[in-house]
């Protein structure tokens, strides 16, 4: 039986959707070109994505997510930060980075029909890539999202994504000044210390888009507020497209 009423299902579906959008083949869309990712402006991949039919992409992602999530063991479906804290064995198995044996075990239980679908849509290209190579980053993103401890910025959480304004998908928090460059930011005096922990609440798809559009340093120097990010033409086009992505009611 497909498990779609689990609170973690929406999180997994969002991670899977992002992986399909980010895939260089464009999810099997005819005529799409492989992207050479630049640091500024929309990439070829992003342009191809915004030309895709959001309804069809949503239906395809929904189908894949439901079938794959249903193949997960119960402990993976019910994963949470507190579950890892309360069970040492569970914590050892599902803490990031995940081991190769975990990827192999999860992949082995994914239905063969899903492998066929991923191949047909160009998301995997045997023998160069397989279902395991496709699901590994999706699984890592899902586990990371499901087991992230409650942030201290929880009081700032919004009900809708601050870019696309969708309120029916899970929210993630984006460090407007990426933590990886905090030392450089302070050394060069780009921002005051109290600004370092500023966050925006974004859906997984918009969160991934922001990190594709610019490097961490560029985000820190130029795109350190939601308002500045939303001024970009490529972000506006992306938001208009992703707003049309809706999941079917189950």
Folded structure, characterized:
This protein has 250 residues and is mainly α. It has two domains: 7-146, no CATH class; 154-242, no CATH class. The protein has helices spanning 7-22, 44-51, 54-71, 74-77, 81-86, 88-94, 100-108, 112-120, 131-146, 182-188, 204-213, 216-222, 226-230, 233-242; strands spanning 171-175, 199-203. Strands 1-2 form a two-stranded antiparallel ribbon. α1 (7-22) packs across α9 and α11 runs antiparallel to α14 (233-242). The longest helix has 18 residues, at 54-71. The radius of gyration is 18 Å and the shape is globular. The chain starts with 6 loop residues before the first helix and ends in an 8-residue tail after the last helix.
H/E topology pattern: HHHHHHHHHEHEHHHH
The average pLDDT value, as a whole number, equals 85
Structural class: mainly alpha
Residue stretches low in confidence (pLDDT < 50, at least 5 long) are: 26-45
Number of strands: 2
Secondary-structure topology with pairs:
Layout: H1 7-22, H2 44-51, H3 54-71, H4 74-77, H5 81-86, H6 88-94, H7 100-108, H8 112-120, H9 131-146, E1 171-175, H10 182-188, E2 199-203, H11 204-213, H12 216-222, H13 226-230, H14 233-242
Antiparallel strand pairs: 1-2
Helix pairs in contact: 1-3, 1-9, 7-9, 11-14
